Amino acid sequence: MDKQRTIVVALGGNALQKQGEASSEAQRRVAAETIRQLLPLVQAGHRVAIVHGNGPQVGNIVLHEEAVNTDDVPSLPLDDCGAMSQGLIGFWLQQAFQDSFRAHQMSDKHAVSLVTQTIVSGDDAAFQNPTKPIGPFYSEEEAKAVQAERGYVVKEDAGRGWRRVVPSPKPVEIVEAPIIKALVEAGVLVVSTGGGGIPVLRQEDGTLTGVEAVIDKDFGAATLANLLHADTLLILTSVDAAKVNFNQPNEEALGQISAEEMQKHIDDGQFAAGSMLPKAQAALQFVSGGEGRTAVITSLEKTTEAIDGTAGTRIVS
Length: 317
Fold this sequence. Notes:
The protein is of the alpha/beta class and about 325 residues long. The protein is built from nine helices and 17 strands. It has helices at about 25-45, 55-70, 80-105, 140-150, 175-185, 215-225, 260-265, 275-285, 305-310, and strands at about 5-10, 45-50, 110-115, 115-120, 130-140, 155, 160-165, 175, 190, 200, 210, 230-235, 245, 250-255, 255-260, 295-300, 315. The strands form four sheets. The chain has an eight-stranded mixed sheet, with helices on both faces. Strands 8-4-10-11 form a four-stranded mixed sheet. It has a three-stranded antiparallel sheet with strand order 5-7-6. Strand 6 (about 155) and strand 7 (about 160-165) form a beta hairpin. Helix 2 (about 55-70) packs across helix 3, helix 6 runs parallel beside helix 8 and helix 7 packs antiparallel against helix 8 (about 275-285). The longest helix has 26 residues, at about 80-105. The protein is globular. The model has no long low-confidence stretch (mean pLDDT about 90).
């Protein structure tokens, strides 16, 4: 690895929960495995900030909420559920990092997690067209009943059943960014902006109010990386690189490309919405924000090689 950098790492859901393993013990085990892949970044002297997804965890919290929703136990709003997931996942990750630092005799290193609020715009078009599915699957009949009873917006989800959908507005500002920046510059590994941050609206008097929405984690990570003046945005997902002509005979993994080339692939519809598209868009947003920036899309297992420049898709400004 080359010179010391400030690196924002966006962890996908697969880095926190394996399919069908939703117990706390299983997710702690996956978190520990994840940290083993990321530790070399810290050992190399880089300043590291971690952003994580929270989709499966918020889904589980919503399931629990709906299971116990009675007059005696009222359900929590979605922003509260997001805060719960941030605290839970942050706890797993910071503990796993601290255990790893201790095991490797890195007594000067510290990890902390921070419950993070992200300001969104009330004028964002996403509020008029909710698209982000959360929570359990329903039959059409069950979905219509839930819609009538709880006021949810429900839609059919890719042939798998009906689900509640909520807005997914773009992040505007991260409230705790100055604190995160100070900690990262002091050499502390910070876990923050989980699930893209808890979405909040800023009122005319300056106060903040939570809103029923979910922010895309990759856009949250790009926003944080910009606010930290990071050198690198590392987006970790389930594949080693972004690909064009995906699942076609002429499929091609992308190596190092320019921002202009990435924009062309986006315009050509090469990336699936809800899958690689937001990652490509977030990467492009980051590198377009300043000179000398690099965004990398790769798998957790290729972290070290990707930072060295020998793996993954690298988008340069």
